[in-house]
Each structure stands twice: as C-alpha cells, then as structure tokens.
C-alpha cells in the first residue's frame, strides 16, 4: 500500500525549520509495509495546500499531513482540507470544550482565535490532542483517508499511535498486503564502504535478496542497512535476525553497534561493564574526544577527565612530555603520543588513557608530516602503551572527527578483546 506525506509551513519551505516529521512518519509507515509514494512540502498558501490534498488523494489511499493547524492567520490547513473535500468548516463542540479546558487548566484566557482550532470540514473526525490545543483531523475523500496532525513534533508523536495505527491496521488488512517491514542498521568503523561491501560478498549484496541489504556511509561510519519485508511480524523479525547474524559474521570486529548506538556509547558501556576508567590527552582534537564521551549519559561512571595540551609548553608542563622528545621527534610523533598517554594514565590514576596528537591543517603540514598525520596512543595500567600512525584524508573538521573516532575505536577493540578473552 502507498501513502503520500505532506508537510505544511513556510518555515519548512524556507529551510528555517528542518522537516523531521516526514522522516519520522515514513519510518513508522514502513513498519506496516506502507511505502510513501512521495513527500511534498507546501508553503502556507491556501490554493497550494488545497491542490496538494486533491492530488495526493487521487494518487494514494492514504495521505498524512502535518502542520498549519495553529490558531494564527498563516495556519491554513483546515481551510484547505475543507476546500479539497468540498465541505464547509463546522465547529466541533467537543473539541471546543477541550480547547477551553486546556486554557482553563493553565489559568490562561483563551484568545477567540483559538476557537478556530475546533473547526473542521463537515463529516471529518477530530483527533484529540492531549498535549496541545490543535486537534488533528481525519477526513475521507474519494476513497482516500486523509490524516492531519499538528506540526509540533512532540504533539505529532504523541498522537500518531492512538490515531494512525488503528487506521493503518484496517487499511493494510483491507488492501490484502498486510506485510510488515522491519529495518535495522549494522554500524562499522575502520574500513571504507566498498571494502565493507566486498567483505559482505555478492550473495549478501544481491538486489533480489530478501531481506535486502544496502550500505551507506556518514562521517566515517559505514552502515549496513537491512530491510526485511514479510507477511507477518514474526517472520520479518526472524529473517531480519538471521541476516543480521550473517552480516556480523562477515564483518567481524569492524562492527561496533546496531541502529543508533554511537562509538562513544559502545566504549562507555564496555568500560562500565568491565569496571575500567578512562582519561584522555588531546592535542589536535582540542577536547572533541572528551566531548564525544561526555555526551553519553552515564559516562561519569568511567570517564576520569582529560587534558587539552595544545602547545608544546603545555604538553611539557601538564603531562611531562620531555622537552628533548618534543625537540627531537616533534609534537606529532610516536614518542610524544606515548608520553602523553602514559602520563595521562598515571596522573588520572585511570585504567586506560588515550592520546591524540596530529596535524589537522590546513597549515602546518610538512613533507614528512603532511596534513592528516595523526598519532593515537593507548596506555593501559600494567601494560606497555602502544601508538599507531594514521593518515586521515579531508579538511580540518574531518581530520579531527576521524582522529577522535579512531581513538574511540582503538579502545573499543581493546575492550572487546578483553571481554572475549575473559569469557
Ligand atoms: P504548525 O502546526 O504549522 O503551527 O507548526 C508548529 C511548529 O511545529 C512550527 O513552528 C515548527 O517549529 C514545527 N513544525 C511544523 N512542521 C514541522 C515538520 N514537518 N518537522 C519539524 N517541525 C515542524
Ligand atoms: Mg505553521
């Protein structure tokens, strides 16, 4: 079954607000095997919204729109829907009472304009909104079900399940294609997209395979997306799990997580599970590594803290990198990276310490240390520290991002080794 998704609002058209509702709804529809035919973003313009409703209703049995239900002059979605279905706007007394009650609960006077929000096309059904004033609407028009939700993402999300799911159940069952689509993402770090595809091999990458596998890359992370479409939820789940196991087996330790889980989350969890603490010493990443770790709720259980040691003086004063090491080998060197990691480990009394020192550019590169040269060291209590040389491509932002992620990945691989050798 197909659906059309409409998002309505000048702020979306102008790019001032990014349309997150459509992506969210599309993902929910997929769970019901409903494919969006197209997404359309429309300005706050009565003829344009009216035409968008009419076109969409002619092309798909389901239309879901968000936005333009507010009480102000620029909110035209209810007028447009009324025009599209050829019905006058009438006041729904129950909705009006609910809007009045909403203001009464907050001890605020209700502007008369808010009464407009209780109006809907004759014959349409209001969809109560418990977290805002604007009810949604459900209209039927020439064989098409049209659902309209408020644009505020939190209101849409609260209203979608109670109002859209029963309709989706009914429509997909009636369409006789009650298939379910489940998706998952396997995230990898450390190899390029084409190499990851090669590791998966032609059998897993076949375009007629069920579940279907595809790769995407974003910010150095190559993800393998799996889409499992089958008649029942149980079968879709079972096939998805089987394919995920095959993907994991093919990619081994390149895989760091599933779905939305970040490298920093994985490292945080692994540290907490093995009761290990971490300190960092950062030069060219200037605190990015510490920031990625502290973004994770609960990281206080494993993160001791760190140093941003940008100048040579500071590397020497704060983390005791010997001046002769800095002079002989330079700040971007194996010896400096090792000293930073070892001394951060000692001073923080941590179980692990990561150090990053490199040339982020655009200036500062030399023939033997070009822009993108980064040394990453890992020190560990009771073990000798190790350091590795990396050459990251791209601009300053990309080099710093890859350096911080590669440091996290270095520790991730070490922690996973620890836990697999102890079990
Ligand atoms: P409206 O229902 O048009 O009054 O929208 C209320 C607010 O919700 C707008 O000011 C936007 O900030 C937000 N909004 C509307 N549509 C979307 C959308 N498609 N994605 C994300 N936010 C939205
Ligand atoms: Mg609007």
Describe what this molecule looks like in 3D.
The chain is an alpha/beta fold and 423 residues long. Helices cover 43% and strands 25% of the residues. The protein has 14 helices and 17 strands. The strands form four sheets. The chain has a six-stranded mixed β-sheet with strand order 2-1-3-8-7-6, with helices on both faces. Strands 14-13-15-16-17 form a five-stranded mixed β-sheet, with helices on both faces. Strands 10-11-9-12 form a four-stranded antiparallel β-sheet. Strand 16 and strand 17 form a beta hairpin. Helix 7 packs across helix 8 and helix 9 packs parallel to helix 14. The radius of gyration is 28 Å and the shape is elongated. The chain starts with a strand and ends with a helix. The structure holds adenosine monophosphate and magnesium ion (MG). Adenosine monophosphate binds next to helix 1 and helix 2.
> How many helical stretches?
14
Oligomeric state, counting identical vs distinct chains: single chain
Total strand segments: 17
| Distance linking N and C termini | 48 Å
Largest sheet: 6 strands, mixed
Adjacency order of strands in the biggest sheet: 2-1-3-8-7-6
- Can you tell me the overall shape? elongated
């Amino acid at each position: 079954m197909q659906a059309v998704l409409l998002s309505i609002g000048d702020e979306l058209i102008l790019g001032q607000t990014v349309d997150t509702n459509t992506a969210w709804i599309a993902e929910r529809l997929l769970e019901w095997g409903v494919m969006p035919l197209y997404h359309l973003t429309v300005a706050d313009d009565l003829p344009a919204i009216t035409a968008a409703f009419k076109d969409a209703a002619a092309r798909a049995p389901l239309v879901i729109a968000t936005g333009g239900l507010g009480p102000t002059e620029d909110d035209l979605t209810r007028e447009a829907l009324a025009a599209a279905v050829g019905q006058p706007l009438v006041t729904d007394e129950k909705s009006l009472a609910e809007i009045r009650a909403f203001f009464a609960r907050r001890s605020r006077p209700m502007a008369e304009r808010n009464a407009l929000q209780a109006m809907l096309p004759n014959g349409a059904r209001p969809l109560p909104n418990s977290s805002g004033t604007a009810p949604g609407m459900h209209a039927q028009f020439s064989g098409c079900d049209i659902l309209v939700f408020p644009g505020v993402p939190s209101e849409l999300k609260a209203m979608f399940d109670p109002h859209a799911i029963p309709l989706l159940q009914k429509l997909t069952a009636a369409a006789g294609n009650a298939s379910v689509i489940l998706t998952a993402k396997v995230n990898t770090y450390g190899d390029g997209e084409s190499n990851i595809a090669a590791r998966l091999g032609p059998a897993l990458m076949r375009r007629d395979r069920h579940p279907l596998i595809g790769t995407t890359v974003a910010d150095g992370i190559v993800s393998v997306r799996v889409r499992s479409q089958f008649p029942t939820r149980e079968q879709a789940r079972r096939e998805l799990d089987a394919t995920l196991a095959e993907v994991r087996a093919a990619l081994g330790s390149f895989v760091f997580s599933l779905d939305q889980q970040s490298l920093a989350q994985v490292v945080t969890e692994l540290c907490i599970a093995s009761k290990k603490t971490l300190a960092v010493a950062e030069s060219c990443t200037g605190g990015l590594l510490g920031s990625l770790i502290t973004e994770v709720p609960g990281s206080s259980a494993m993160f001791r803290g760190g140093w941003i040691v940008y100048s040579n003086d500071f590397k020497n004063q704060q983390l005791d990198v010997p001046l002769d090491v800095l002079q002989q080998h330079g700040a971007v060197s194996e010896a400096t990276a090792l000293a930073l990691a070892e001394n951060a480990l000692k001073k923080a009394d941590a179980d692990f310490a990561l150090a990053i020192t490199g040339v982020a550019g655009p200036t500062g590169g030399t023939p033997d240390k070009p822009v993108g040269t980064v040394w990453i060291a890992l020190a560990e209590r009771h073990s000798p520290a190790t350091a590795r040389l990396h050459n990251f491509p791209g601009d300053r932002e990309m080099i710093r991002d890859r350096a911080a992620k590669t440091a996290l990945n270095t520790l991730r691989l070490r922690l996973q080794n620890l836990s697999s050798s102890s079990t």
